[in-house]
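Contributing new complexes? Match this layout with magnesium ion.
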Amino acid sequence: MDIKKERTLVVIKPDGVQRGLIGEVIRRYERSGLKLVATKMVIPTSDFVEKHYLVDPEWMTKTGNKTIESYRKKGKNPPSEDPIEVTKIVLENLKKYLVAGPVVAMVWQGVGAVGIIRKITGSTEPLTSDVGTIRGDFTIDSYELADSDGRAVRNILHASGTAEEAEKEISLWFSPEEIVDYRLINEAMIYDVDLNGIME
Ligand code: ADP
Ligand code: MG
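Output block (do not edit by hand):
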């Protein structure tokens, strides 16, 4: 596997589309030097959303633990002590959230794509996402508010968590023909060993 061809899935969720952030999101990812290799607008079905989140068998445990830890850090009690119980509710709420309107799915490619996209996106809970990240800069939601109102955290984006998760998610969202293999001139400045051809 060519490390310059690592790929990751991003989905601009319905709140990102409705908040007018499609351009802003693409601008932030694009200027990093990563290459956009696929994109489309779709309205996912509830079954599809479930499939998407369950491609990673560990997702329920990881997401439940992350939620519980975040409550603890703030000195608060989580909705349940069992990570699977926490995530079961989250998944039901995610289904309602993601089918609410069009989403924009994209595949970004380049060295370290998964980690770079997560870094620009910010951590899951906007309340504690770093300033300068998309989630930290453009929204304010919290686990506590979302959980008490019985809905998913609205955090503008989905971005794959690991390279393995990314490959599984990409094959769920895109057929191979929808992913474009092309040369982007910018990449020469990032990857080429010799920077010949700049000077006249
Ligand atoms: P990420 O999207 O950062 O990878 P996860 O995969 O852990 O985060 O969770 C998927 C999505 O589920 C989150 O982006 C968020 O919209 C929602 N979510 C996660 N945990 C909670 C929670 N405790 N309460 C409400 N929504 C949640
Ligand atoms: Mg995730």
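Reviewers usually confirm one structural detail per submission. For this one: Residues 152 and 175 are 28 Å apart (CA to CA).
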